[in-house]
Amino acid sequence: MSDTKSSSMSGDDKRKIAADCWRRGNEAIAKENWDYGIQMYFTAVKLIPDNLMYRQSLRFTEYKKYNNNGTGATMASMRSMGSKGSVKKSRMTKNWQAVDVAAEEGLQVNPWDVGFNGDVGDAAKAQGFPEVAIFAYEEALKKEPTNKEINMSLAEVLEERGEYKRASDCWRRILKLEPTNGTARSKITSLDAKGVMDRGGYEGAEGTRGVMAPHEVARRMGTDGKAGGPGSSPIADMERAVRKDPTNRDQLMKLADLYRREGRLEDAEQQLLKSLELSGGNINVREVLEDVQLDLMRKAVTVAQEQFRADTADESKKQRAVAMSTELLNREVEVIAARVERYPQDMRMKFELATRLMKQQKWATAIPLLQQSRSDPRVKGEALVNLGKCFQYDNKEQLARRQFEAAIPEITHEAHPELFKDLFYFLGRLCEKSGDKPAAEEYYQKVLEVDYAYRDAVTRLNSLQGGESAG
């Protein structure tokens, strides 16, 4: 697919084609057709360059193609000269999209090339794709962990996302290389302090008297799995098992699960990346990895929001919090949409996708998903209420009212207090607008019976009873 043709497509069309290419790539690698798999994944990457899953699929398939030899194709350096020239030229004009594509073409010749991985990281960072940038930088550091520039770039992205421990680790590697580096020493001190206050031990507590997270308590007591004999802790035992057999995928998965339960998401992610690479892109491993990466994004969003709340006058913090929230939502849509396609009979998954699409105000896309998911008794009431909202926002008010009324037997205040109030308030608004005053009064009264201060329900009820419309 030419770049000119793809640039003229809508975002939804690009996502649809990219998802299809990714699926074709998965089918290809299942048959060990590495070249076609790489072609399909690369097309997906070019269409949706901020999708981490597509990047990881592409890179790990490139590793498989070259049998994990660490050097890529024969005479890789000579064969990638053209890509290096393209990267250099595009960097001069700060055409980061072109840098990205050229570097990825170079990585198809040698996926372990530190320079090209760094170029992908820089391009992703400049374009606002932090998850991709982190992945590219970390892949480069696997080959050359002492690269100062890449460690600095990675540390910057990680710090911006509130991942202070990982950022500090980058600066520690730099300090080990340059023991007199004052900047590195200062950054380590600052990041360690931020890590304790914002993430490491207090997790939402208002001050140092708050409750520490379990993994921070364990770290301070020296019982975090890094010491002690067999049986001292499940994490310590599994870490020993992994050190003994680092290619055992099941043990890596078990260790990742233990880390995740303790809130050590970064450590869990690293084990899952190893397992994914060993498995050749196994879809079950990939889904667990996606869930952990989404958890990491949620934590980063929380940190950004807390930083803005602490300094509401800082417009840049506000913009960063909004941008990260949008990035998280987009990523959730991509991940869940892929699973809906993979598991078409999972109605709850369709419901989850619909709720995200509603946040993007894509009512027409959410409606058929909600219509299908209401067949699941677990989400029937919520699906009907959300379906009513979608019809209402899409200016189909009669359809909206029918959905809301169908939801009444499914929603109780005890089980769904907020949804209960939403349901009867929206019904009241619809009935008021259509001139059905008795029904509107009844529905507003239902709301006020449980929450007298809910929105403007009191004002609207008073207006109806007084013979005036509240508008």
Write up what this structure looks like.
The structure is a single chain. The radius of gyration is 26 Å and the shape is globular. The longest helix is centred in the middle third of the chain and has 28 residues, at 283-310. Helix 7 (96-107) runs antiparallel to helix 8, helix 9 (130-143) runs antiparallel to helix 10 (148-160) and helix 23 (417-434) packs antiparallel against helix 24 (437-450). The chain has 471 residues and is mainly α. 74% of the residues lie in helices and 0% in strands. The model is unreliable at 199-227 (pLDDT under 50). The protein starts with a helix and ends in a 5-residue tail after the last helix. It has helices spanning 3-7, 11-30, 34-47, 52-65, 76-79, 81-92, 96-107, 114-127, 130-143, 148-160, 164-177, 182-200, 214-221, 234-244, 249-261, 265-279, 283-310, 315-342, 347-359, 363-373, 380-393, 397-407, 417-434, 437-450, 457-466. It has four domains: 3-204, Tetratricopeptide repeat domain (Serine Threonine Protein Phosphatase 5, Tetratricopeptide repeat, Alpha Horseshoe), CATH 1.25.40; 230-321, Alpha Horseshoe (Serine Threonine Protein Phosphatase 5, Tetratricopeptide repeat); 343-406, Alpha Horseshoe (Serine Threonine Protein Phosphatase 5, Tetratricopeptide repeat); 411-471. It has 25 helices and no strands.
